[in-house]
Every structure is written in structure tokens, then in C-alpha cells.
Design brief:
Length: 366
């Protein structure tokens, strides 16, 4: 067995302390590497761009199963609404989601990094980098054998290292209503509407601290528009159980990759993961589980290569990325063939229920 060299300040430097970056860091640190994570935010729980909804697989099969119970709420049903607001209840035996007190989960995740011996540097911005031997010299931070970009849909690491960049996005906005409760708090409420959410959906869910309600649509940089979440809530809020008099507290907003993994996500000791690598479901936009799994695989692969001469982690990163083939096909069809009337007409039909259950309850691969 070989040991990491001391020619670099770090074996891995990871930009971004969200789910993918944290998974990569913890996996590598557990295997004895010197890991640094830089995060531009002073508080990991502020200015969030994730809904924080965790699927069953992540809740049971990853370190996220250690999130304190007070930070999560179990949701076992999906209520799917047609544009007319007709609805159908969907469920799968044993399947569930966890909504979360997301700011507290992100702070808990930062503490996990520290507990695992990761050098976590908050309020630190990644600006420039240059090649240093086989690795990278990062301005103001130090040298590293491997540089990992877990810094979101507009990854600066991808730009600086000449890696592939995400090209297609949804744009989402979400309101938080602290202390609020909805009538059917055991369900994730999902709304289909070409008017308010072309290319995606709206949603309402109960979480441990209140209610979250969001809307996302296909982002066209040539004709960019902000989702009309206020109009959406006037239309659908009562159906989802939100009284009209409620005023939102915090707001989350940002771009969501929707085209699948980027091309050229890893090269020359630089690797992308999470949103930076486009590892987000093109249909449901669920990213936490796939981001965690890919980040963990990258961290393990770098440790294996550095300590034991394992296969190149760049190759592992590319091979470990989910392809989302079926969901990318659905994404293509949804972008081009979305009409309101089929959902109004066939909402209760067996074929639509069958398709919806495979989207929401992960009954199909890819």
C-alpha cells in the first residue's frame, strides 16, 4: 500500500459543501486522505437552492440516515393535480420521502465534515486555479492533488478547468411559510400546469418547521422569465391546503440542471459532481440521492487511487454518473408535447397512474 505524498497541501480540495461535496469529502477522509472543503457562504444554512426533500433510498442507504429525527418529516403519499385541479392520490407500499428543516440539515452536514477531520473553510470563495505538477494550485488556499467541483449549476471549477458545463436548466423558486400547516400534511402535492410551470411542476409540502411551496419552469436564456409563484399559489394554494392570508418568510431560487450528466466531467485531476456535473433527474429534479452517491463514489475512487494505485478516479467518476436514459426521453417528450388537456382528461386512467408512480416512486431505472 502506498501513502499520500506530502508534495501537496491537500489530497483533495472540494469546492462546495452541499450534499455531493460533503459525500466526496467524508468518503475520502474516512480513507485517510487530507481533505479541504471551501464554501463561499458563512453559514451553510443560508441562501439555499435545494428543496431538501430526501428520497427513501438516500434516507436508508447513506450517511443521511443519521440526520436527527427532529430535522425530518416522513411523507408517504403524492397527490398529483391536473391543470383543472382534479387530483389523484398515489402511493407505493413502503415508499416515502423526507421533507427537512433544510437549513439545520446543512449545518448538521457541516458538523459531520468537521467530525470526520475535514478542513472546512466557510466564507471562502474559489476564484482561480492553475496546474501544479499533476495537481492544482488554488489561489489563496493552497495546492491539491485533486480538485473537485461541487459548486452548483454554474460551476466555476468547470469554467476554470476547462471541463464540461451544464447547458439546459429549469429555473425554480420556493417560498417557506414558517409555522404553517396544510390539511393533507402526509402528502407531497404536485401540480401540472403549462401556464405556470411549462416543462416542470409546482409543489407544496409540509416540513418540520412549516410549509414549503415552489414552482419551476424550463429556463430559456433568450426569453428568461421568473416563475409566477404568487399567481400559482392564488390558483392552486387552497387546493394544496395553503390559506390565502399566509405571507411567505424565506425564499429560495436558482437554476436546476435538467439535461443529464455533462460531457467531459473529469480530466487532468479535476472532477465535477452533483449539480456541477448535471447529476440531477431530468424529470423529477431530485438531486440529493444521486448527488450523494456520485460524490461518495468520487471520494472513494480518489482515495483508492492515491493510497492503493486503484483505477483513475476520472474514469470512475464518468462511469459512476447515472445516465437517466428513460427520464431524459421523458424530458424530451415533456418539453415538446406538454399540453394541459391530456392530464385533465386522463388523470385517473391506469396508464397515467402507472407512469406517475414510476416517476415519483423510482419504479424504473435510469
Amino acid at each position: 500500500m502506498t501513502t499520500p505524498t506530502t508534495a501537496y497541501d491537500f489530497d483533495i480540495l472540494i469546492v462546495g459543501a452541499s450534499f455531493a461535496g460533503a459525500a466526496c469529502a467524508i468518503a475520502a477522509a474516512q480513507r485517510g486522505l487530507r481533505v479541504c472543503v471551501v464554501e463561499r457562504k458563512h453559514d451553510p444554512g443560508e441562501k439555499l437552492r435545494t428543496t431538501g426533500i430526501i428520497v427513501k433510498e438516500a434516507a436508508e442507504q447513506t450517511l443521511l440516515n443519521q440526520i436527527p429525527a427532529a430535522m425530518t418529516r416522513r411523507i408517504e403519499q403524492v397527490r398529483l393535480y391536473a391543470p383543472s385541479l382534479k387530483q389523484v392520490a398515489l402511493a407505493a407500499p413502503g415508499y416515502y420521502f423526507l421533507t427537512t428543516d433544510t437549513p439545520q440539515v446543512m449545518r448538521w452536514l457541516a458538523e459531520q465534515l468537521r467530525l470526520h477531520g475535514v478542513d472546512l473553510r466557510l466564507d471562502t470563495t474559489f476564484n482561480q486555479c492553475a496546474r501544479s505538477g499533476e495537481g492544482w494550485q488554488v489561489e489563496g488556499i493552497g495546492s491539491t492533488r485533486y480538485l473537485v467541483g461541487a459548486d452548483g449549476a454554474r460551476s466555476r471549477v468547470a469554467q476554470r478547468c476547462g471541463l464540461g458545463e451544464v447547458k439546459q436548466f429549469l429555473y425554480g423558486i420556493e417560498y417557506e411559510f414558517p409555522g404553517a400547516r396544510i390539511i393533507h400534511a402526509d402528502a407531497l402535492h404536485c401540480f401540472i400546469s403549462k401556464r405556470y410551470a411549462p416543462g416542470y411542476i409546482g409543489w407544496i409540502a409540509q416540513n418540520p418547521t412549516g410549509v414549503q411551496a415552489g414552482l419551476a419552469l424550463r429556463h430559456d436564456p433568450e426569453r428568461a422569465r421568473v416563475p409566477d409563484i404568487d399567481g400559482f399559489l392564488l390558483r392552486a394554494g387552497i387546493a394544496g391546503g395553503i390559506p390565502r392570508h399566509l405571507k411567505p418568510g424565506h425564499t429560495r431560487a436558482g437554476l436546476i440542471p435538467c439535461s443529464g450528466p455533462v460531457v467531459d466531467m473529469a480530466r487532468d485531476h479535476a472532477i465535477l459532481t452533483g449539480d456541477a456535473a448535471g447529476i440531477v433527474s431530468p424529470v423529477t429534479a431530485g438531486g440529493i440521492h444521486s448527488a450523494w452517491e456520485h460524490g461518495w463514489a468520487v471520494g472513494c475512487a480518489i482515495a483508492s487511487h492515491v493510497r492503493e494505485g486503484g483505477p483513475p478516479p476520472e474514469r470512475v467518476a464518468i462511469e459512476a454518473a447515472p445516465r437517466f436514459r428513460a427520464k431524459r426521453a421523458l424530458r424530451w417528450a415533456y418539453d415538446r408535447l406538454q399540453f394541459d388537456w391530456p392530464f385533465d382528461l386522463f388523470l385517473h386512467s391506469p396508464p397515467l397512474r402507472w407512469a406517475a408512480e414510476r416517476v415519483y416512486f423510482h419504479k424504473c431505472s435510469g
